[in-house]
Amino acid sequence: MKKEKVEIIEVGPRDGLQNEKQSIDTEIKYSFIKKLLTSGLSKIEITSFVRPDRIPQLADSKELCKKLESEDFRKFQCLVPNLKGLNSAMESGMKEISVFTAASDEFTKKNINQTIDESMQTIQEIISIANQNGIRVRGYVSTVIACPYSGSISPEKVLDVVRKLIGLGCYQISLGDTIGVGTPIEIKRLIQTLTREFPIEIFSGHYHNTYGMGVANVYASLELGMRSFDSSSGGLGGCPYATGASGNLATEELVYYLEKEGFETGVDLDKLISASETIEKYLGKKLPSNVYQAMISKNR
Amino acid sequence: MKKEKVEIIEVGPRDGLQNEKQSIDTEIKYSFIKKLLTSGLSKIEITSFVRPDRIPQLADSKELCKKLESEDFRKFQCLVPNLKGLNSAMESGMKEISVFTAASDEFTKKNINQTIDESMQTIQEIISIANQNGIRVRGYVSTVIACPYSGSISPEKVLDVVRKLIGLGCYQISLGDTIGVGTPIEIKRLIQTLTREFPIEIFSGHYHNTYGMGVANVYASLELGMRSFDSSSGGLGGCPYATGASGNLATEELVYYLEKEGFETGVDLDKLISASETIEKYLGKKLPSNVYQAMISKNR
């Protein structure tokens, strides 16, 4: 029987590394991304074209893209906050970008100093030019379950934001449980609300593991037909809203889980672990992924 | 609507602490158990009556029980490996004990220097005397998914062991995924095999989080009607088969998950975290529970 495919969008090099306190050599990022490609990952968010003074960790986006220029850029994504970022991304050869908003005004205000509606203005400008240049645009919606500033978010609020992003031309929506508080019952309620209006195929689950619910939420999403998930190798990234807590769901957990459950991810777990190991050694601190730690300890 | 209850068997003081390298003051254990009781936990495995030279961590079982003597011992359980242990447990006022075997001969041989069948001989002697003294006996079956020495374990093999334990008089069977490799599809296959012959009510899921699958496996078990789970506060315990890896599913994750999914555990999460904090401070190292770390960091 042919296995059903599940898409994994690896966000470690961007979402993961941008939250690290220490700066990371471009050469290390390059080597990390090369190893991620070798593991079989075919969608990697490699960086964000942001103002270097805002996120100094990602100030080397152009240099990084230059180093990667012999690679297939259809495998790469990057975050773009504004037209300036879009231009840099295009100059760097990016074929696919992501735009960012949230389902909470309090969250977008604190993060990008815009209301959700204001962020839609920016996104509209970005998508318009991106599409003219044949660039696909993915939309991130943060705080789909709860906001660190305003609490619970209703599925209807998320639906409203999704409607706008799809209307503006996003081809895929990443549903971010940014603070990782969601449990399966909430994830299912959200997906059921969204899929009353949109097909499940346009959604990707971006579940943080802050409360250890990451895999369970993937399980719930798979039950409702979702077949695309974001994750970060090694669980890189931490939670910016809870110091010392876990952040992104680890790609190792996702691959381990999906492959054992009979899905095809295209990712070689041992090679993925080798990619994470590069970063763990460089950062000099234990990565949060349980699968990573269990497998590394067996190999010792 | 009345919430459905889920039973939690807290194994931190025994399964958790026995794997710690440093010895722990009896006074700290006492204070830990008192706080666990205050949190609302009503089933706590407080110790194991083993030879002090085998597990020095638990050499103070009698002293600990003495300190706890004003408590309701119907809330306590302890592990008993042999008749000598049973006698000590009874002298110490225990009302409920657990016996131990596995679904892999290689595992029981390495752990207790007995085959499964030989362990049944010991268990038969223990249960016979325990029952004469009005003491209830719970049976632990380790390696229900895989053995660290011999690999995969078939559900039929587990069923065979369960049949024997129930035949000997165990009232409940704890199904231990000792190395935490199982995923929902395997857990469901196991439960489905066992419940062809026994009611789901006699089983308790004891899932380790070594590969981050703990909550997802609880999810799968709940779907099949299981309403009893073992866990360890703070995720205490580590994995003795993979140094540096996680072990027991954290009680914090279990309570967080179950309560949000609409079940009743009777446990106050904040008070539980206060219990775990006692041990974290004493051990001087970060506990593996994600919920614990996320909530502690919010309170700082």
End-to-end C-alpha gap of chain A: 36 Å
Tell me the total number of β-strands of chain A.
Answer: 12
Work out the radius of gyration of chain A: 18 Å
How much of the sequence of chain A is in beta strands?
15-25%
Largest interface, Cβ cutoff 8 Å? A-B, 39 and 39 residues
Low-confidence stretches of chain A: none
The percent of residues in helical segments of chain A reads: 40-55%
What is the string of helix and strand elements of chain A? EEHHEHEHEHHEEEHEHEHEHEHH
Oligomer type: homodimer
Spatially, the strands of the biggest sheet of chain A line up as 3-4-5-6-9-10
Mean pLDDT of chain A: 95
Largest sheet of chain A: 6 strands, parallel
Label the structural class of chain A. Answer: alpha/beta
List the topology elements:
Two copies of one chain form a homodimer.
Chain A: E1 4-5, E2 7-10, H1 12-16, H2 26-38, E3 44-48, H3 61-67, E4 76-79, H4 83-91, E5 96-102, H5 105-112, H6 116-132, E6 136-142, E7 146-147, E8 151-152, H7 155-168, E9 172-177, H8 184-194, E10 203-207, H9 214-223, E11 228-231, H10 251-260, E12 263-264, H11 269-283, H12 290-299
Parallel strand pairs in A: 1-12, 2-11, 3-4, 4-5, 5-6, 6-9, 9-10
Antiparallel strand pairs in A: 7-8
Helix pairs in contact in A: 2-11, 6-7, 7-8, 8-9
Question: Could you please describe the fold and organization of this structure?
Answer:
Two copies of one chain form a homodimer. In chain A, the strands form four sheets. The first copy, chain A, has a six-stranded parallel sheet. Chain A has a two-stranded parallel sheet with strand order 1-12. A two-stranded parallel ribbon of chain A has the order 2-11. Chain A is of the alpha/beta class and 300 residues long. Helices cover 43% and strands 17% of the residues of chain A. Chain A starts with a strand and ends with a helix. Chain A contains twelve helices and twelve strands. In chain A, helix 4 (83-91) links the parallel strand 4 and strand 5. The A-B interface holds A 180, 183-186, 209-216, 218-220, 239, 242-246, 250, 253, 256-257, 260-262, 286, 289-291, 293-294, 296-298, 300 and B 180, 183-186, 209-216, 218-220, 239, 242-246, 250, 253, 256-257, 260-262, 286, 289-291, 293-294, 296-298, 300.
